[in-house]
Design goal:
Elements: E1 4-11, E2 15-17, H1 22-26, H2 31-42, E3 44-50, H3 51-60, H4 67-74, E4 77-80, E5 92-95, H5 99-108, E6 113-117, H6 121-128, E7 134-140, E8 148-149, E9 159-166, E10 172-178
Length: 179
Amino acid sequence: MRKIIVAAEVSMDGIVNNPEMFPEIFKYHTDDVQEYLDNLLFSSDALLLGRLTYEGFAKVWPTRTGKMADYINKMPKHVASRTLKEPLSWNSTLIQGDIVEELRKLKQMDGRDMVQYGVGELTQTMLNHGLVDRFQLLVFPFTFGKGGRWFDGMDIKHFKLIECKTFKSGAILMQYGQA
């Protein structure tokens, strides 16, 4: 069975949904951080995206080239949205109908893991239905102070630590599974 991995790059104060902080994040993308990010991407064969992440990524990634960009641009993307309409661009398919059931079907299909970048309502839905197999939080050693936090508005959830790794830049990877 395929796994769903939720990956987020966050500041120490838990900010995850603020594109303005990317210049700060990139300061900490040392070679070992980039190796982790590459391994995560290349071990998967599909992306799960909410509407906002899809719209942001679809503007940026098709304009880029290189090994990572080429892989992202070619891989299938499954997009959760109540407002977008088919057809979607950028090798993307709209998840229609019962999102939980559709995600369960995707997990049963042959293939490698699926990664969700961007955290929001899709993440909360997957959490509430036990669909997330692993959380990979890459925490960077700075505070940002403004923007969405990963678990705002969520009920109490418990997780099991799988791995903790420190990178040369001071960034820390914390991998969790659902308890």
